[in-house]
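#struct-pred
JK: can someone run the complex with pyridoxal-5'-phosphate? inputs below
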Amino acid sequence: MAATVSVNGRITGERDASISIFDHGFLYGEGVYETLRTYNRRPFLYERHVRRLRQSARMITLDVPFTDEALAAQIGDTMAAADLAGGEAYIRVLLTRGIGELTYDPKATPTPSVVIIVKPQVDPPAEAYRDGVTVAIVDIIRNHPGSVNPMIKSNNLMNSALAMQEALGRGAFEGVMRNYRGELSECTTANLFVVKNGVVMTPPLDSGLLPGITRELVVEIGRDIGVDVRESVLRDADLHGADEAFLTSTTRELVPITSVDDRVVGNGKPGPLTGRLLDAYRRFAHAS
Ligand SMILES: Cc1ncc(COP(=O)(O)O)c(C=O)c1O
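RT: done, structure tokens with the ligand placed:
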């Protein structure tokens, strides 16, 4: 894995990186995070990621103990200490409630902990883009917005882990979760898109999902290249009957979905609109 880690500003290799077991991130999963990657060795869409980190922190009433500039400098220092062999970086920033007594009272944890993990970016295998991947619609549902709201990019990932484990057990690359109303929401670590009759659709935020930054950029890129991308409530039948489907995330860009459980999507090959959006996305990212 060869990760380099900054724990509250102390940069070490992965073996020496440690945090107190009394950190409430460990004890209670109380924290938020961001996953970024670089293109041309620079964190891609940095401002959007920091904005979402601040929004996640606000939603759990957690103070963010750094400025955007200070965090960028800390990420830069961690990257400089990392062995990236000239390649691109995967960057994970975690912010937890901090160290304190065994109580949910936030007064016990006056100082948040900040962890930055940097390691080489590993792209999905080329076959995933060439042939597409299989997803499974899993039984675990996405968190109810009145519980741990999916808008929060939370370190508390038990629900997502169980959903992904169900998908992996069924031989799938990703799991698609429904919300409590039975609508499709998103994948366990990615957003979901389907294409039908030339229209690209993704569930609205009201379906209970993370406002993905790749999702947001795909909507903008679609507008730029003349592809109709819109939000629409989706159900199982929309995915099963789609002409094309794909998932999006920072580290995986757009990955075509060519089967859902045992059913083939469209003609079983990555579709043309998925390809156009992926090409345009990559052009934008590499030019950034
Ligand atoms: C639940 C979930 N949805 C969507 C995404 C994709 O978000 P982004 O495009 O900002 O990476 C992620 C990324 O980790 C995720 O965990």
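RT: quick notes.
The longest strand covers residues 31-39.
The pocket of pyridoxal-5'-phosphate is lined by residues 35, 186, 189-191, 210, 212-215, 248-250 (CB under 6 Å).
JK: thanks, will look after standup
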